[in-house]
Amino acid sequence: MMGDKRLNDFKRRWQLVQYTECVLYAVGVAGLSYLASQSFYLGILGFVVGMAVALLLFKPWKLSSEQTVAYVDAHVPEAGYSSALLLMSPSELSNLSKLQRYRVATQLDAVIAKLKPPHQLPMAAMVMFGLIMIGLATQFMLKEFQPKDQTPSTPQSIQFAPLDSVETNAAIPKLSSTKITIHQPDYTGIANVSTENPNISAVTGAVISWQLEFDGEVSNVRMDRMGEIFTLSQKNGGFNLSQTLETSGFYSFSFEDANGNKFVTDLYSLEAIEDQTPLVEIDGLDQYSYFEFDDAKQLPLNTKVSDDFGINDAYIVATVSKGSGESVKFREETIRFDGTLSKGEKQLQLKKLLDLDKLKMDPGDELYFYVEAKDNKIPTPNISRSETYFAVIRDTITDDFAVESTLGVDQMPDYFRSQRQLIIDTEKLIKDRPSLSEKDFKFKSNELGFDQKSLRLKYGQFMGDETELQAAPGQVSSVESEHEEEEGEEKDLLDAYSHKHDSDNEHNLVEEHEGHNEEGGEEDPLHDYLHNHDDPEESTLFEKSLKAKLRDALSIMWDAELYLRLYQPEKSLPYQYKALKIIQEIKNSARIYVHRIGFDPPPIKEEKRLTGDIEAISNYDKKQEFEYQMSFASSRKAIARLEQLIKGTEFTESDRDLFQNAGNELAKKAVEEPVKYLKVLQGLRDLDKSTNRTKEHYATVQKSLLSVLPQVENNPGKGNQYEDEINRLFINELGKND
Question: Average pLDDT of 355-373?
């Protein structure tokens, strides 16, 4: 019977271990839920859910006696795989089985208490700590990326405080009722709002009304809005003021009691939300579309228009251009979208099929169009437009070169590649060399060499080296005698059709007359006036300095062509780059820059010209000094003065002016970001109140000033300070936590 009790005790210990594992998993889930949400109730819910899931997975209550016996037999050799006998009644056993049962029970009494049940407690503990660490990391990330509240101490209602210490036993008037009504512009569709929160955010153009009621006698209730003073009118026992919100800024209220004591409020923000312009998007349309004459010349236009407060109108502005040059004509049309435009909607899907034929466009005409949208803003709507798209119908009339039956020469210029294109093709050939066969590689390299030669010869025309492009005179060996002239010279078959530069009067600029050649000793009298192509030094479009550069480029092109012909493009590339560099220099030096000015010189007196009289002329010498002014100078002085006040210096009247000047400096920036500067402006404003002139408040205002001021501009120079990324981050963190 003792052995049966031992098995039951071991089974209970095994179940207890499993329950412990479930608790560890549940604690991990609860820790993750609490740390991530900072909610105690979510933490409890996480524990309950985690515990329920773990219990369903492990099911400790279903641990059977057979599982216990199997584990004991496998891990306790003394049991002799007979521990199951302990679970059976002795009356059911034979004498031998009873003897074995007694033996096993005796052996287990000393061993089973030390037997440890199977468990995964280390794994469960690791999972628990892992989930808790994930919760801590999530909490840190949420705090890091959570937008920092710039005005945590800003009150949500208007509160007055005495400007100076009030030494009287009379009751201080209190604000009994505050009502702020915001009337948004009608076109926005936003309902009017009544609130007590003085920090107002509304659409530009909204009308804001303040109604203040006091317990006690007050006078001179005024609003100070960025330096502008507005007096509240007294009506029905309260003080009222209405203003239209145009720009962002700050405001405060002040009043006087019956004894003349002044009371002021904190600074409150006015944020004007600008009405955004409509957003126009055109989907699935290329910027440029081209059509042939026989194509279906239609453009499907799918447009999406959206606006924050509603769309009033949207349409297509199309311009058709006809003709070219000085005879070009433009026709502008406004095209409506298909269907009825639903005004006031915030999003619209508009469609239109533009038919170029219906726009009466002919071949060669061009269409420029864009979509324009207007919103509901009153009185002047916001207008926006999409990008401009182009549609062109290709012209069917082209200038083709034709050869008549009597003309046997095509003198149209051949196509030739630029030096930059040759470089690109050569680099591509070098890159593709491993994948090309030797025959294809040599063929392409030779072709590039031919293109290099064509480009060299083309540039050679500018140098007058046109003889390289001349074809050899046509000859027929069997009938040579028939083409000989009386002087014994050979006649060129292409003489009637080619452009010969070797003739004495190629342009027919003067009448033909007899002259003497060099052998006769008399020089042609028109030599200095004619454009002579016979002399390469004369036949050029450039000046001599450019000719030298061009000759260098042609010489380098020879070397580039040589290595391409030798199937060594990698050696040709350096020469090609040198040639390209020289060509670019030639192009830049050949440009003409005209500086247009509007200066008209005064008329010169004829009696003063060329007299050399310079008595009335005096030299002009101008000296000007510029004084460097540091940005936010008053604010930086205020920081230094606050340091002295923290150490115990007395507050003076000059300090009041200094802090007021600092506030004026920051107010200019605060119009753009009112929320960011509200706290520091309020702190400077509170220094006017004697109750706020404490060391703690001085330190708070100084810290706020330091947080919004930009860094001082450093003078250029060599710094001796060592700073790396780690140190910089460390210093920044110290500044945040200061």
Answer: 90
Look up residue 656 and give its two tokens: 């009041």
**So what CATH class is 279-393?**
mainly beta
CB 329 within 8 A of CB 323: yes
Return the ∠ at Cα 18 (arms to 17 and 19), rounded to 5°: 90
Report how far residue 277's alpha carbon sits from residue 219's, in angstroms, rounded to the nearest whole number. 44
Distance CA 241, CA 179 (A): 11
Termini Cα distance of the chain:
73
pLDDT tens digits, one per residue of 317-340: 999 988 766 567 888 889 999 988
Query: Considering only CA atoms, which of 710, 655, 704 is closest in space to residue 677?
Result: 704
Distance CA 229, CA 206 (A): 20
pTM of the prediction? 0.45
CA distance to 50, 227, 633, 634, 717, per residue, from 638 (Å): 57, 20, 9, 6, 28
- Show me where the domains of the chain are located: 2-136, 174-273, 279-393, 418-430+439-462+544-594, 633-707
The CATH code of the domain at 174-273 is 2.60.40.10
pLDDT beyond 50 at 158: yes
* β-strands 311-322, 366-375 pairing: antiparallel
The closest alpha carbon to 109, from 37, 197, 7, 23, belongs to: 7
Token code pair at residue 715: 């003078």
Tell which residue, 474, 467, 506, 468, has the closest CA to residue 490. 474
Q: How confident is the model at residue 712 (pLDDT cuts 50, 70, 90)?
A: low
pLDDT in tens, 191-243: 888 888 888 889 988 999 999 988 878 888 899 888 789 999 988 778 999 99
Domains 174-273 and 279-393 share a fold: yes
Burial of 249 (0-12, 13-18, 19+ CB in 10 A): buried
Tokens found for residue 206: 């909204």
DSSP 8-state assignment for residue 484 = B
Structure confidence by residue, pLDDT tens digits, 265-316: 888 888 888 889 999 999 888 888 888 888 888 999 999 999 988 899 999 9
DSSP 3-state percent helix, strand, coil across the chain (nearest 5)? 40, 20, 40
* Mean pLDDT for the chain overall: 76
| CA distances from residue 133 to 49, 126, 673 in whole angstroms, order as listed | 19, 10, 38
User: Which pLDDT belongs to residue 736?
Assistant: 57
Question: 10 Å Cβ neighbour count for 487?
Answer: 5
Q: Residue 109: which pLDDT band, with cuts at 50, 70 and 90?
A: low
